[in-house]
Specification:
Layout: E1 4-7, E2 10-13, H1 17-28, H2 32-43, E3 53-57, H3 65-74, E4 79-83, H4 90-93, H5 95-112
Parallel strand pairs: 3-4
Antiparallel strand pairs: 1-2
């Protein structure tokens, strides 16, 4: 019953409780996300060159629709991609689709700055 356990022939480790508490205190139970998002939006308000991609898990997401709507209101050019079969860790739950999209985002960013 500890933080490290075997599951399906692999070993897993839960997040350290102190780290989890720190995350909740400084991120989830704060306005940190809104403050940072608004600062980025203000900094790039007059820029047409910055593209923002919001990748949202369809299962167990921490992104509430109200929050997504507020993000879009601040930065209307934000491109949203929802992964209906993706869990919180997209890179581990919808690997192929996530990597394909990530490569496309990177290629687009590289070509727009040449």
């Amino acid at each position: 019953g500890g933080r490290v356990y075997e599951h399906g022939g692999e070993y897993w480790s839960d997040v350290h409780p102190a780290f989890r508490a720190l995350c909740y205190r400084t991120i989830f139970d704060s306005n940190s996300g809104s403050t940072c998002w608004n600062a980025i939006a203000q900094h790039y308000a007059n820029s047409n060159t910055v593209k923002v991609h919001l990748l949202v898990a369809g299962i167990g997401t921490v992104c509430e629709q109200e929050s997504i709507d507020e993000m879009i209101q601040c930065m209307p050019s934000t491109q949203i991609k929802t992964y209906p079969n993706g869990y919180h860790s997209l890179h581990g739950s919808v690997v192929e689709e996530f990597l394909c999209d990530l490569k496309e985002i990177i290629a687009d960013a590289k070509s727009s700055h040449l």
